[in-house]
Amino acid sequence: MEFPSLLLCLQILLPSLVFLTLILAKKRSAKLPPGPRRIPLLGNMHNMISGEAPHRALHKLSQKFGPVMHLQLGEVSVAVISSPEAAKQVMKTHDIHFASRSPIIVAEIISYGCTSITFSPYGEYWRQLRKITTLELLSMKRVQSFRWLREKVFVGLARKFAASGSEVNFSKQFNAATFSLISRAALGDGTKQVESLHPMINELAELSAGFDIADVFPSIKLFQWMSRLRKRVLVIHKDIDRILEEVIHQHRTAKNDEHHEDILDVLLEYQRDGLDFSLAKDNVKSVIVDMLAGGSETSGTTVEWAMAELLKNPGILEKAQEEVRRVFGEEGTIEESRIQECKYLKLVVKETLRMHPALPLTLPRKCRETTEVDGYVIPENSRVIVNAWAINRDPNYWKDANTFQPERFLDNLVDFKGNNFEYLPFGSGRRICPGMSFGLANTEFPLALFLYHFDWKLGGGMKPEDLNMEDGFGLTARRLKQLYLVPTLTRPLPAQ
Ligand code: HEM
């Protein structure tokens, strides 16, 4: 009897031992992704100060070290993802492990201790906030409800262009108009203080572009205390907070029935007692900052690049203009509900988002649990950067990837809703941009309007081939050089 029972034990034990040995061997062989050589203490910080825009610098490094790359920035472990296959693993297969954000000092301060949609860690609070954002703040219905505001702001800008009679700084004027639109949608049309928020939000975007020594050595409290960036951000935050306090007070005291509902109105409803989920005043303010920071420069930059690409490519400009003028010829201006008919214009926007994603490195995620990607280990708490700019130009997926060709999307069903990992202008997975519809509406309407009513030339008599198409150094892929254009009104603007 003894022999068969020993055999039975072996039969059970042996496979388990083999399985265990395999797992242990796999664990032992699991290694960090490759990356450039580090120097003591600083790690790879020297690799990030090449003077190039971070998405380009990281792209160059990834061509040498691979689509899953590891960098050590001071104390912070960073994984850089640069291929559609690896992005799919991060944003789909293991999305839940990467669904948190990795906040930096600027973000922590301006988001009232990471309580905004963008910076709150993955968990119940973020899920509730995200639900309110998708279903109420940025729903399709809400986006359409701001149609009157888009018309008011962008037709107003078109009037300024028409009155100028000469060259205009398109970049500056369009970005100011987009901020005006977003801030009015968020805080109300009648609120005077909103315009003064623009330079502050702009400065915050600039400050979050670089990295601060305190961010890469979080355990050294002296660096936090010494950080000049931290001091500056605290000052700006205080000013923004004061303005938001005033606007909230006005909303509470001066309601009238004529008033168009804005995003702040909706958020204040979540301050009532007796709700399953309610928002403290600081939470409301953090979401408003999210809208102002996340919504304005992204759409503004996209339109700026679309106009630059159109003027660089006169044949494409002519085709887009012919379509818009044909579709709206009888109306005499742009009727937003019919923009769907402008199929070619939509391809132009899609191609602009491919070549110039407004957030080229999306928004850094945080690895919540050690995870294997492409056979490499991404350690828990690493910062994970998905280089959407590099992925959107991956030559394995895109023919003539560096050429602006809206037609490439004609027979290509790839879209930006987060299911095609070779095209990630809005990210993907749980943290995908909730402002996609709003961003697109704020891009397509002004483009159609400008193409319909004006003929355009480059400023300073510049030839298309001389237009500089470099992007600058920033969180958003702004143009390095501002775009100067000469608008000529060819079809009258709608009456006021
Ligand atoms: C063309 C316009 C826009 C582009 C290209 C864009 C792009 C992005 C990207 C790449 C992300 C990160 C996604 C990820 O981590 O996977 C993001 C997140 C976000 N965007 Fe947008 N965005 C645009 C417009 C807007 C607008 C208009 C709003 C609101 C007014 C907005 C609000 C947000 C918020 C709140 C998040 C954070 C979501 C979260 O962490 O859960 N975006 N956006």
From TrEMBL:
Keyword annotations from UniProtKB, A to Z: Heme, Iron, Membrane, Metal-binding, Monooxygenase, Oxidoreductase, Signal-anchor, Transmembrane, Transmembrane helix
Single GO molecular function: metal ion binding
Family classification: Belongs to the cytochrome P450 family.
Protein name (record): Salviol synthase-like
GO cellular component, one term: membrane
Binding site for heme: C433
Cofactor(s) recorded in Swiss-Prot or TrEMBL: heme
Subcellular location field: Membrane
One Pfam family hit: p450
Top-rank taxon, per record: Eukaryota
Main localization category: membrane
One Gene Ontology biological process: terpenoid biosynthetic process
Keyword Cell division assigned: no
SUPFAM superfamilies recorded: Cytochrome P450 (SSF48264)
Entries under InterPro entries matching the protein: CYP450_71D (IPR052306), Cyt_P450 (IPR001128), Cyt_P450_CS (IPR017972), Cyt_P450_E_grp-I (IPR002401), Cyt_P450_sf (IPR036396)
PROSITE patterns in the record: CYTOCHROME_P450 (PS00086)
Native organism: Salvia divinorum (Maria pastora)
Membrane topology listed for this record: Single-pass type II membrane protein
